[in-house]
Amino acid sequence: MNTVKNFIKLSFKNIRRHPVKNFLIGIVIFLASILFLFNGSLKENAESAWKDYFSRTFTGDYHITSYQGLDRDYTLPSFTLPRKMISSQIIDYLDKNQVVYSKRIKIGAAVYDDKKSEFKGSLPALIGIDWEKELALLSNLKIVSGRFDPDLPNGILVWKEYADSLKWKAGDEITLYMKDTEKNTYPYSFRVMGIVNHQEGASLEGKGVIQMFPALFVSYQYLALQLGIEDNQAVEIAVWDKEGKYEKDLKKLAEENSLQYFQGTQGYGIVFGIVELLGFFGSSIAALILVILVVATLNLNMMGFFERRKEIGSLVAMGARPFWLVGLLLMEMVVFATLVFALACGFYFILTQTGGKGIDFGEMAVFFAGKKFTAGFELQSVVNGYLTILIVSFISSIYPIYLTTKINPVDVFREAEI
Amino acid sequence: MTKAKIPFQNVLRHRFSSLIFILIFAVSSFVLYWSFGYANLISSILNDSFYDSYGDMVFFTDYFEKDKIQTLIQDPSIERVVLDREIQGILENPEKSDLVILSELTPDNQNRLKRYIRPVVGTLPKNTEDIVVSEFLKEGQYQLGETVTMQISTPDKVINAKKFKVCGITKSSGWKGLGSAFLITEESMTELLASNRHANVISVFLKNKNETREAKKEIYQGIKKTLEENKLEIKDSWMTYEQMDKLASFSGLFASVKSLVMILFFPLIGAVSAAIVWMYAFRRRKELWTYSALGMTHGSITVLMAFEYWILTLTGIITGLGIGSFTSYLAEKANIWFRFSYTFVSPLLTEIHTGDIVLIVMFLLLCVTFWIIPPLKRIVKAPPFSY
Amino acid sequence: MKKIILILLLLWIPSYFFALSGEEILKKSDEQWVPDICSYLLTMKTIESGGDEKENQFKGFKKGSVKNVMTVVKPKKISGSVFLRKDDVIFSYYTTNHKLNKVAYQSLFMGSLLSYGDVLATELSFDYNVSKTEETGEDYILTLTPKQGQSGYGKVVIQIGKKDFLPKKRDYYALSGILLKSCVFNKIEFDGKNLSYMEQEFFEPLKERKTIVSLSSVEILKDIPEKYYNENFIQYLSGLK
């Protein structure tokens, strides 16, 4: 314990002894650290903003679906129902733990233009929901025209952008072809009782060349009847569990029953792709900086070694063992990296507190579901960033430390040109 | 002359430190090459893909006779009218049936679309039995060499079918069929439709790509009216700039990558350069003071040293850009693709312009100049042999 | 010798001049097995390559070559839905949406491998020309191509018995010559002069599945009211017998 204490003391002394060099290395580590934290924040902002948006607008905090693979998608839904429904084991678990959830039926439907006798556009997602439960939970949805009529069995609420693209309005009667549980495809009539939109967020309207949210909401009971789905069965479960208390168990249950678990973003492949793209950018830039950090710190550590050969030679001459020297140098590296990283965290923390209501990225707000970017302090990013800095510093110190163990004190005190 | 020789000699004399400095700038310029190159590629794909696929405006209609349409659509602003065929059909084999969009690859559109249609396996269709399938939402469903049958309805409303062999699998088809069209040769399409007189896609290319929106809209409305007057039903149509507006934010993001990387690199590389220069200049302080003692001014010593570092920087830049170019060539051969969900698909390629090279060189030189002068000056200005 | 030659000539010349043309053979065949005005029960059983089976049943009323209407008996879910062929147009009325729609000739019918045209256009002579006529010992082999402006297959090759002019086999080809489906007439039974039962087996080589179509409870009628073929009336048909 004393040895460690002495090492730390010596490390601080040595760091202070080479201020300019350490200051400059410190800038590099500082920048890299800020970038890690910022990158983590970017990703977290994007994920949580979209998660919140989807949770209150379309899908709940997370979903369990019996669709396989990309058939789960809400932007490009599958025309065929999955082979099996959600197992009772999951429903029982949800009921037993009084989790807030809703059973759903989701299916892709082909829109038929009765006047022109032809099909139009790509398949929208027809989502059978429990009106009473979900309209309360989907708090970001508002009816912008028409009205919700619980007594209209085949009434649908249509997402505004999608309705506009097909020139639908409240009161229109539409025909959708759907494939039922017997794999028969028949046309069904629906009445547009209202047009819905979000109260806030997304900023995806008018962006992208396909309909992002081709969502039509209909009564679960009505859709189940038309498709021949037994009462109380579900194709999907939407779960509202913000803290994620039951997430782990439900994930496990989904896996055991060969079902898919996904969060709202992942149910809309397009948005998921946008978030992944952002993550990719951040990671690429972080990786680039790491490469430069490794090269730079390797070089500076090498130069540091040459500069301190006499110092190290003196220590060896006084009887210091190689592992002691290695320990000292490593401790210096750890202490320095930790100090700089802590400074970067402190600086970043101040930034997050003084950031006010957040930064509006304008057109780029699409990455954050239309919300302002709020720099946050993510524990995971701190841990990842710190570990990365330490590892990089360690890698760049390996060779100089190795050279240290080979020092001959006699040679050191000869004049030599490098 | 002597003053010019000294930096070169110093570079060779201090080989280790020179190598380190070159390495730093080689890595930096390599990174800048790829950042700029990739951002340019994506930006230009987003900006050009719609135009390359469908021109300034496009009309998807019922089948029409090509000769008739060519005479109908006339306007002095129009450079050319391209008549293609893009149809829906059912692709079948014993295990599956898929409703797909089938597009023909003509020599003309293949030339325009070659940037986007790069099969991840296999080749583009050459023979009439060849078909390139899209992986969009169908990943792993089709294998190279597999035989499939395409069933369609001809312009004369007769059912036709044709067997194809999967010759290639692609992640993108430009914007043909919303990026997911299956591709066959022109001859193959003629066989399938039993006609080369008919087409159903009208793409209009204007002489002036930068024509005002109002002018484009006028031409668009005019063509629409002409087609309607001739009782040709238009199923869908758009002007390319409308689609580009929808992608503007994504295009802007990639265009801003260059600026972002430069903003990050300036302090990063600068700090590294400054640290290196400080340490080496400190070690060579006796050399510098000797110059001073010999009567050289502080300014000329600084320039002398700076010149040495410029040589190293330029060497590093040339090395880095060379490696960047070579790795770009290798990446193109390897045909690597990125996919983020089904939103964004792109090949790992670069598109570097002369202006980018000039920018990279100027930026790095400026960076090194800005950051090395203060540590050099500090040492040079200190009383000679004082420490 | 000269007398024998003369007798043979006298027999051959009329047969040459009075031999039936392809069109006539086809028309005769159509008339032979499908009564002109009748009601019937049509049952369709589709068997997928995996073994899954699906059965549909319809009550139909045929009047001449170009008027045929069917109401769905099975599946119960869409019982009362109606399909009408009138001249060149096919209409559908589903009880799931209570709307009248036009349907394309080639659209697949009720999840089977038959098209609407296959089911509702029973008399090929109306939609197809005979482009080639061949004969074997027992059968006529006719090659049919669609008439100008008519929807249809690229080519239909049918085998008709010489003795009874009943169809034996039909092969449906795409324009390219790919065989899309085959149909074999397993049974054609008569009650006196009138058709009492008919069974066809359709097979689709591309997907290795088959549909068995049987016609039963055939009742010859003197007439069928025109309103049965009025697209605005067909929604009421299910209540009629």
Structural write-up:
- The complex is a heterotrimer of chains A (418), B (387) and C (241).
- Chain A contains 13 helices and twelve strands.
- With 418 residues, chain A is of the alpha+beta class.
- Chain A has two domains: 2-51 and 273-412, no CATH class; 63-266, no CATH class.
- In chain A, a hairpin with a 4-residue loop joins strand 3 and strand 4 (118-120).
- Chain A is elongated and about 95 Å long.
- Chain B folds into two domains: 2-48 and 247-381, no CATH class; 57-208, no CATH class.
- Chain B is built from ten helices and 13 strands.
- The mean pLDDT of chain B is 87.
- Chain C is an alpha+beta fold.
- Chain C has a domain at 21-126 and 188-239: Lipoprotein localisation LolA/LolB/LppX (outer membrane lipoprotein receptor (LolB), chain A).
- Chain C is 16% helix and 47% strand.
- Chain C contains four helices and 14 strands.
- A 13-stranded antiparallel sheet of chain C has the order 6-5-4-3-2-1-14-13-12-11-10-8-7.
- In chain C, a hairpin with a 7-residue loop joins strand 3 and strand 4 (82-86).
- Chains in contact: A-B, A-C, B-C.
- The B-C interface holds B 92-94, 97, 149, 151, 153-154, 156-163, 191-192, 194 and C 49, 104-106, 146, 150-154, 174-176, 178, 180, 206-208.
- Strand 8 (158-170) of chain B pairs parallel with strand 9 (152-153) of chain C, so a sheet runs across the interface.
